[in-house]
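Journal club prep — side note

Before the paper discussion, L.F. wants everyone to see what a predicted structure for a comparable chain looks like in token form. Sequence:
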Amino acid sequence: MAKTSTTTKKRATKKTSKSPTSRKPAQPKKTASEETAVVQTTLSPVPDVQTVQKAVQDGKKTDPETALVQKRRVVNDLFQRGLAAHQAGQIDDAIRLYSAALRQNPDQPDVWNNLGVALRRSKRFAAALIAYRRAADLRPENAGLWSNMGNCLREMMRFDEALAAHKKAIELDDTIKSHTFNTGLVYRDLNKFSDALGYFNRALAMDPEYVDANWDSALAHLALGDYAKGWAGYETRRQLADNPIRPLDLAPEWDGKGDLRGKRLLLRAEQGFGDMIQFARFIPLVAKRAAHIIVECRKELMPIMRTVSGVGTVVEKGRALPEFDLHVPLLSLPHVLGIGEADLKKISADPYLSPPKGKQVRLAPPAGTVLKVGLIWAGKLNPRDRSCPLDTLLPILSAKGAAFYSFQVDDRRADIEKIGVTAFVTDLGDHIHDFGDSAALMQAMDLIISIDSAPAHLAGAMGIPVWMLQLYTTDWRWLVDRADSPWYPSMRIYRQQKPADWSTPVEKLSADFSTLLQARLGSTKVDQQD
């Protein structure tokens, strides 16, 4: 992750940066450094904009020279107000004011650049790209502008063009660490983690304390299976802007070396549902060494966290904590325990989550059903939309002998009716209030088909077969070019071969599904004959 840097139009010899509009997602991974230009001028007090505009338009009342001065003041006022709104996070207001300034005078590269930054932040990438290109036409030697353009192109998944823009920025000014770092992000999104590390290391050579480069370097090492460097670097998340690990001075933090005998250890909550499920596998390791394990987590996770071996107390995040002697963030366990590839394989061999006691489900699939399949096709939009449109799965939904159940709990449940598959897909959303409910329902499934999501982690943690549809740009935990996962032996991964193109993974999944279904149908016939 990185900061949105603000640079002055008149630069000093040593370039400096501020962070007026830094806002990072809870799972901080995918943002690049941006530069907005600040035009600093000293003018006499600016009159009301509407008054000046009227005066400018009224040629009878204002001579040309005075009108020009007044118009410049209007434009500067609009820009400064836009900049203030931008820095305050009022992005729509900033876009409106930048646009008004450009309508008065379109020959302003700094304003075009800032408009591009604001449009990109509001995810209007095509418009942002046009703004950047207008700025480049006016000031092609601006290295920061080319880096901004590269960031926009990367988000549009136009990776070749993004690389060309970033390398242009480096060619113009190779002393700015963010230009080098942003280039590495393109290679990361291309799943070329070794190349990405080369650029991250170059950025770190300029500034060894560059938090964003240290963070993404850690993720690259993890994606390449280098757990020693990866887990150590993963601790950098504590320094990220919106890092959810709050200070806790009530007791010392455990470093993995201190004796836990007779101690109460608090494992602290952080990041998303899927992360907490994924890292819960390490709890039994410390439970063997401590007298009592306390797990902090969000309310929705509490029922399944209670089923992890060795957990003594589960407390909802935000509630008062029980007494404890030591604490450590849950996601720091692999680092403090020194988990390597062999350890991970051993730890992940068996399921470690189960439905809460007393939760049982009875399903009534249609007659002749030999395969009950859970579906999750949509998830959160940040840092990237991982959703796979439900209608792309139509080839398998009509398969005779299979019954499909939706585990969606958000407004995407409406997709079932929207595309007309209510006869093929049973909506379980009303029965799911937490992950305990999901676990009980999943236990009744033969297969889960999911995007990269918390339910995919849940199925894997329970040892249920899960086929996961994965974006072209992989997440670090799924490694590169693998159909299996060291985290979940029951998982099979179907990866996009081109950005935003689900055709190849869905085609392969459909073929595998047909094979599985035919095998189940054949087995059922044999059983009936016996």
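L.F.'s comment for the group: The domain at 75-236 is CATH 1.25.40.10 (Serine Threonine Protein Phosphatase 5, Tetratricopeptide repeat). Keep this in mind when we get to the figures.
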